[in-house]
Amino acid sequence: MLRDQIQQIVSAAVDAAKSAGQLPDVPIAAPSIERPKQAEHGDFSTNISLITASAVKQATGEKANPRQIAQAIVSHIPVDGLIGAVELAGPGFINIRLAQGWLQGQVRAIIDAGDSFGNIDRGAGQRWQVEFVSANPTGPLHYGGARNAVLGDALASVLSAAGYAVQREFYVNDVGNQLDLFARSLHARYLQLHGQDAPLPEDGYRGDYMLTYARQVQAEVGDSYLSLPATEVLRELRAKGLAIVLADLQYELGLIGVRYDRWFSEQSLYDDGLVEQMLDELTAKGDIGEWDGARWFRASNYPKNDKDEVVVRSNGLPTYFASDIAYHYDKFVRRGFDKVVNVWSVDHQGHVSRMGAIMAALGLDPERLIIVIYNLVKLVRDGQEVKMSKRSGDFLTLREVVEEVGADAVRFMLLTRGPESGIEFDLDLAVAQKNDNPVYYVQMNHARICSILGKAADEGMPARGDAQPGDEAALALLIHPAELSLIRKILEMEDQIDFAIDKLSPHNLTHYAMELARTFSIFYDQCHVLKAEPTELVRARLLLCRATRTALARVLGLMGMSAPESM
């Protein structure tokens, strides 16, 4: 990363100052390198002199002047190649400006990087799993679940861009009472389609989608289920209904570009005996005891837990918690993931501490399990909250929202805030073709660049993207402040990927995309492209346009959105 290169240069300057006798030879922490909020303070800034002054006092007891320390360090920072200027500021801050020639040369490097532009090697191949959505397979995906899908999918993309080996997983809750209730509801709807007076279970699934599922079953099996014993029918409907819902979920998630590497069945944990094995092992360790007719996991023995959890009810049926134990053993021990990210809605926040207890009980480092909690989504139309489907009167589904505003708008709008913040999704703004609509604004600027490059090609202008003799000389003409600002903004991509991983949230990408589009608009307004003179400047600005298109397409791709060539 560029930031790492700057850090290495500053660290080398500190060592050189020590060797020259300008600084005491005391241990000094690695310098912190930041991007100043104000452009006039340079491209990067470090407080290494303040850190050094503190280290000197701690080691020698003598007070050191941070500004004098900064002067000693600056004298050993080479102003050539990457570094264009180094300045002292305030009580001892060091501001660093990138060399103009180096910035100009990055335009070619950005184009050549293509789809891999911005990639960093932070992960070094570590195996991470991101498990997200994992909704009960009992109906269509509620629109609120789209935030889980978009957050998990974009986070997985960012992790991949940072060098992690990432698996996307959907955990299918195909065990327990909810699926049984679903099968009984589906049976009632099936019987109703054949003219029978079959009431729905009291707590059954009543949405119109159940009729749709029943018709699919009817189309496949006709009336053959009418003659089967109820227990056999329910067993068949449980399996067929699950298959229908999973296919539906795959389709709905596919509408917003979400694909999984694996759909993991909870039932498989029982089929191969892992749940029973884990309960037996934890019982032998003393982590599971029996009282009040049930079996309990002694979560209260572990930090941040003040109550124990039932793993097997008094009726002998295991709870979801029993499955959680086996599932996470499978993730970490059987499959060997270095870290796992579970994306959960805020109503599951109370379960976070117990997951730490599970990890500790299994002899695993709780820090290897990361749980990202996201807040709720409020849909708004004409200033009023929208909760119900116009079509069926049931809850509003992801499919209906995508049909209304499009997949890209759904993804962009649901990434604009950090997970902990609620989101108010304005349906009217999402479809508005104006600059106030952020997704439209970003994509429009990508399309504008494609139009510029297309027109240049039509007019026989030097717009080729592959390296050509004379590129370096042409790029040296990029000296306008708007040109250099655009290059600087493009080069922030690495930092944006790094930041998203630090926060385990890719929401910053939406803001970066808007800033990049805005910076390009300023460049386009202030710098003629096709009408520039001399011809070498046209060539340079067309290359800068190509570099910007590369960056816009890259950030849109990381968010799972399209980069349209026309709008």
Report on this model:
By secondary structure, the protein is an alpha/beta fold. Among the domains are: 2-98, Arginyl tRNA synthetase N-terminal domain (Gyrase A, domain 2, 2-Layer Sandwich), CATH 3.30.1360.70; 104-122 and 434-558, Isoleucyl-tRNA Synthetase, Domain 1 (Orthogonal Bundle), CATH 1.10.730.10; 177-255, no CATH class. The chain is built from 21 helices and 15 strands. The protein has helices at 2-19, 48-60, 66-74, 100-113, 145-161, 177-193, 209-221, 230-255, 267-271, 274-285, 320-334, 352-361, 398-405, 407-413, 427-431, 438-458, 471-475, 481-490, 493-503, 508-526, 535-558, and strands at residues 33-34, 44-46, 83-89, 93-98, 127-131, 165-172, 262-265, 288-291, 294-297, 309-312, 339-345, 369-374, 377-381, 384-386, 423-426. It has a five-stranded parallel β-sheet, sandwiched between helices. It has a four-stranded antiparallel β-sheet with strand order 1-2-4-3. Strand 3 (83-89) and strand 4 (93-98) form a beta hairpin. Helix 18 (481-490) runs antiparallel to helix 20. The protein is flat, with a radius of gyration of 29 Å. It starts with a helix and ends in a 9-residue tail after the last helix. The mean pLDDT is 94.
